[in-house]
Amino acid sequence: MGPRLWICSAGIFVASLALYLFTLAPTVLWGDFGGFQTRAYTGEIGAHPVNHPLWLYLARPLVLLPVGDVAYRVTLSAALFAALALVVVFLLVNYLTRSLLASLLATVALALSHTFWTYAVVPKNYSLNSLMLASMIFLLLLWRDKRRSWHLYAFAFLFGLSLMSHLIMLTAAPAFLFFILMVTRGMKWRPLLGGGLFFLLGLAPYLLLMASTGQTGTTGGFVTGPLAGFAKLLVSPRDLLLALTTLALTLGYQFFFWLIPGLVGIWGLLRRDFTAGAMLALAYLGVVAFVSVPTAEGPAMQHWHLYMTSYVIFALWIGMGLKELRPRLPTTGMGWLVLLVPVLALPILTYAVIPTVARDYPHLLGVRDVPGRDSARFLFTPWKQGVYGARTFGEEVFRTLPPDAIIIADWTLASPLMYLQQVEGQRPDVEIAELYAQEQVPYALKHYQANPLFLANTEAYYDIAGLSQHFDILPQGPVYQLVPKPPLSRTQ
Question: What Cα–Cα distance (Å) separates residue 224 from each residue in 217, 293, 452?
């Protein structure tokens, strides 16, 4: 790697990390985000696919850093992996195109794309997935071109290990298998046997973790469920149309003007290097197929974060497209300035404006409003600096609750309370009962005589009708107290 590539790589890492640190979520967040921030500290790491154990293990050392609170330090890992992923994408595009300009522009397009930026500044594992996918593609190309077995072995180990981060990585398996079979035609099979052994070596930590926690069944269901759902999708025109529409809208919201070189790059790579081009196309379609499966949780938009690895692939196509379009692009510095200013400014302006429009269509968002959070802005803008709603809510709740109180809360509202209690030691006397609606009445009837009872909210997540038969529900600061009605004490 020449000096220019070293300098550009370092510049990309430093600039992107600076951007993500400036816009990083500063403290604990709601729901799964807050849950991950807590588990990274406590070490309660399960093997279920949605627990993302590899990322949590890698994030844990950052908890020791003397910056911010623990939640901030856990989130910092997402920014670090995102910056590293961008460096690998830059080097990979340069390897495919031999164009420094195309590589830089494709990397910038990915760095500023909505979902990539968002999951570089919140505590989840998707930036780690992106880093691993880009690295695996790079290793396969190096193995094919340089015929060095260690590239294949490194790929196989990383692929096995990546399943411990998220099982969505399995969607790339057909693409990788196609590429390997195309490359190994007429070759000896010994490297493939070695690759299989290294894959198992990389997979071993996940298998051991599943065996130790007894979660093999849930993991298998996580794989077979989407396969069955995708089969149903193909025979449901309505769901298929919704999936394709969502794909188009989310892709457009990521890349705007970059869509043109990206689409050109798909054909350009297939024409110049069919094996690599087909591998990327299959990997892209694998992610899309997985995310397109309809669920009972709400609109497909709710799952647009799962597209993130496909955006890494699209960034590679952007680089190829820019290479193809280079003769038609400006040749002067002023020409590039006129072209790039609107291309780079449009995404940021759109991210700032679109929440105002989205608030008029709350049924399309698929997310709930929570105290101190503008849900439309949180969803549609990638920057998260200044987001303190979850911490403010949790601290206000703990100031309101009397000694030895019990607060009944759904997962979203319970998670920042659990973080403040388990990580920062606030209010250890309070019991946080994270319960589904159907569990709340029996629990309240069992505990009302011993402890003051409170509800975190009165939304649809709470059995208000059932609780109202036995309790008066009275506002008390940010929460609601359950006061037993007179007949309750005589009949219990």
Answer: 11, 12, 45
Decide: 88 and 59 in contact? Cβ < 8 Å: no
Q: What's the pLDDT score for residue 300?
A: 44
Is the Cβ–Cβ distance between 393 and 40 less than 8 Å? no
Q: 63 near 45, Cβ under 8 Å?
A: no
The reply to whether 325 and 393 lie within a common domain is no
The answer, as to whether pTM is greater than 0.85, is yes
Q: Is residue 107 part of a domain?
A: yes
Over pLDDT 70: what percentage of the chain?
A: 88
Which tokens belong to 82?
């995102």
> Would you state the pLDDT for residue 235?
60
- CA nearest 254: which of 338, 350, 160, 185? 350
Domain presence at residue 372: no
Q: Is the dihedral of CA 166, 168, 174, 179 positive or negative?
A: negative
> Given a cut of 60, is residue 401 above it in pLDDT?
yes
Asked if residue 353 is part of any domain, the answer here is: no
What is the tally of structural domains in the chain?
2
Residue 133 has pLDDT above 70, yes or no: yes
CA 39, CA 382: separation in Å to the nearest integer?
A: 24
For residue 299, pLDDT beyond 50: no
At 74, list the tokens.
Answer: 């856990």
* CA quadruple 244, 248, 253, 254: dihedral, nearest 10: 90
Residue 339 has pLDDT above 50, yes or no: yes
Residue 130 placed within a domain: yes
Whichever domain contains 414, its CATH number is 3.40.190
Helices and strands counted in the chain (H then E):
22, 5
Range of the domain at 105: 3-333
Looking at the structure, do residues 284 and 214 belong to the same domain, yes or no?
yes
> Which residue among 333, 367, 401 closes a domain?
333
Lowest mean pLDDT among 73-82, 110-119, 375-384: 375-384
The answer on pLDDT for 191 being more than 80 is no
Count of CA atoms in the C-beta half-sphere (13 A) of 385: 6
What's 477's DSSP letter? T
Using the predicted structure, report yes or no on whether residue 336 has a pLDDT greater than 70.
Answer: no
139 and 14 in one domain? yes
What average pLDDT does the structure give for the chain?
Answer: 88
Residue 37 near residue 18 (C-beta atoms within 8 A): no
- Domain termination residue (choose one: 333, 368, 397): 333
- The CA-based diameter of the chain, rounded to the nearest angstrom, is 87
Question: Residue 123: its pLDDT value, please?
Answer: 96
